[in-house]
Amino acid sequence: MSLLTKISVPFKNVKTNLVHLQTVAKFSCVTNRLGLEHSSTVDNDAFDSYIVLGHDLEADLKKYKLEDKFKDLDLIKKNHKEFEKDLTFILTNNKRIIYSPTGPLNRDYDDVRQIAEASKKAMKKAIKIGSKKPLIINTVRDNFKLADQVALLAALEAAYNPLELREAKKAESLLKIEKLGYWNENQSEGQKTLDLVNAIELGRIVTRDIGGSDPERMSAQNVVSYINDVLESSNVKINVIEGQETFQKDYPCFAAVNRATQAVPRHSGRIVKLEYNESDQSEIDTTLLLVGKGITYDTGGADVKTGGYMHGMHRDKCGAAFVAGFFKTLSILKPKGLKVHGQICLTRNNIGEDAYVTDEIITSRSNKRIRVGNTDAEGRMAICDSLCEIKDLALTEKNPHIFTIATLTGHVVRSYGENYTGIMSNGPARNQEVDVKLQKSGEMIADPYEISRIRREDYEAHKGKSEYEDIMQCYSKPSAMTGRGHQGPAAFLIMASGLDNHGSDSEKPLSYTHVDIAGSSGKFPGIPTAAPLPSFVAEYILPR
Q1: What domain range includes position 121?
Q2: Residue numbers annotated as active site
Q3: Which tens digits make up the pLDDT trace of 223-257?
Q4: Could you give the CA distance from residue 15 to residue 325 in angstroms, rounded to a whole number?
């Protein structure tokens, strides 16, 4: 099966001047099916290599009655004391076999990511030795509920071909392999696993394509083109807002950030509204409302980033990329009972004579006067008006849960490290344990979270300091150098959007959770992880 369907599609529901849109052939993620194939037996000539995952080879193979199939591996183990620590590659009976150990899985600190790491490492080896059709055999699947899904997703992550390589024709398809096999003796269970993995991975490819591509290839207008391409003929409604006059009227804080792009038309911003609904109104039991930060390049603005800190700032759009990717997954899985609204806020934080500056006071959509403290805190400005609009929409929806998703602060990376998403909720969301549930789902699918708490000090820090302003955007120091530097911005978003009128003490409480992916979105240089897409699928789409 081909991993790529290459088509050219017209725009739909979009009016935009595509200045500087690359005219190369599109290699976007327009397919709805990757080359994933189930196999109920390991004796399958359709595959050219085996990837065996385990932590105690002899016991693991015996459990699944595979001893005879991989007896050569067992022989090597008896003569290699570091066998369960090192990746092993052998060629036997004209078949390539890669054994990738996970290490122990029963210690206090072990988790399903060890299976992901073993699978990813093995897939990289398979690609390096020229395998195009590997078969994954996971002998430790019983250790975690979603172990097979995690193993497959990790292998697919290692096989991803970046969009720009596909378009430059240095890569011919979405993946570095022709197909990926998955061994499971249960045909029905195996196919269900592949269907889920297929949808998640196609969403992650969209997320990586947008989040990882350079700031010109994924300028705001080019992101719009890409989204229309990948969601063409789907059940997702798309509406694009553009024009500085419209932004100044309806999204004034976004307009302030967008102002300096007006001198370079191809940098001008867009707000993309997405809606998914496959159910009658009476059938809807949950509504998600997602706002994604999409800064296509962050120079810092007038408070320019210096000393090399601008490096990698094209990745400041990974929150928006997640929202687009999640809608791709929704369009494939078509879950019932779930309604999803999304707003993707795309602009570039440029330097120029019309750039917004520190000390300006901007009146937000919620009619709050906001004093700018640092133009490099543009992300919260870019999304707070959309959050205000989403808040008003949530009041009309059934069981609404509002989220902002953003690469927002360096502080969250200093607090929790590079591999964890920071999550924090207002009172109504905390009462419903939104953050706790997402953390549990993330643990199952190798998409981990750490929970933070929005405290009174965070609100106090952002209250206006004089009669001129209602709210302080931030202070002059970067978040990483400020106490409570990732919790404070969440309080700002609540205050600037008017969500502070919908807390636990309100007659109309609204559940709101802020998701900071500054660390978990992935290292640069490198490939974006597409966090937190797997955990959102596990929490809101997987059947309980």
Answers
A1: 23-185
A2: 305, 380
A3: 999 999 999 989 999 999 999 999 999 999 999 99
A4: 22
